[in-house]
């Protein structure tokens, strides 16, 4: 048995997955040991100022150090950390990389700044793993803080098309949602910005091929928790749940019109997500416009972290 650690540092949050992997009768079995998240708002101000702030780097340092302590305590053998939208183009990313290299030194690792295409591939791999192959082809939608990835492919990982567009919940909140709840004009402008990307997505990704539309990451999973009326965030209740388009549109309209203070009081809502949740829901609404022939989202608790672990197993599986 081998223990792997995957770290995903996005625009809004940093997350850790620790998994045991062993081979039983020729089949790999994955056992989740820890799945942790901290809201560090790494991308705060990046859209306006073009660089990572000192405060964001301090929050990264603290959260990643805590994750490293957990990985050492749990005897993790192999680690991969990926960085996405917020870090790709900033001029001070060397400061970010230095923090990750120092903190992940016990594993000889540091963050890898991956492309939108690689982010999409890893998200797709993680999101469809627990779905039935015959339910494919799948369209996976991963809404992050700085960008949204849309990927279409089959259960074997053959990708028909993917794209990364700048429809992230942090990016759109900072650009459009200056009030909470946002004004009708702010909502209209955000919807127009998101809608402008539909033609681009359709040109790059054969969305019409998709038989099952899968939503992953925090906006979708939190929306599922709220739709179910959960009294706490319960991954087991959320994973593989469904959100019907018709009901979701009505629920989103009500939630977008709710202040972040009220949203934060919902027991299923992470307090650090409440102030960017409405912008994420605008993206969800736009995705329903993209998949006009579909009727529901299938929600996956698995995402890029699971894809990272799968890639580590591909590389180091001989040690299992």
Brief sketch in words of this structure:
This protein has 320 residues and is of the alpha/beta class. It has helices at 46-49, 54-73, 93-103, 116-128, 169-176, 184-195, 198-204, 218-228, 235-238, 245-256, 260-264, 277-290, 304-316, and strands at residues 2-9, 13-24, 27-39, 78-83, 111-113, 138-143, 148-153, 159-165, 212-216, 242-244, 296-300.
Describe this structure in words.
There is one protein chain. This protein has 320 residues and is of the alpha/beta class. The chain is built from 13 helices and eleven strands. The protein has helices at residues 46-49, 54-73, 93-103, 116-128, 169-176, 184-195, 198-204, 218-228, 235-238, 245-256, 260-264, 277-290, 304-316; strands at residues 2-9, 13-24, 27-39, 78-83, 111-113, 138-143, 148-153, 159-165, 212-216, 242-244, 296-300. The strands form two sheets. A six-stranded mixed β-sheet has the order 8-7-6-9-11-10, with helices on both faces. Helix 4 (116-128) crosses helix 13 (304-316), helix 5 crosses helix 12 and helix 6 packs across helix 12. It is globular and about 50 Å long.
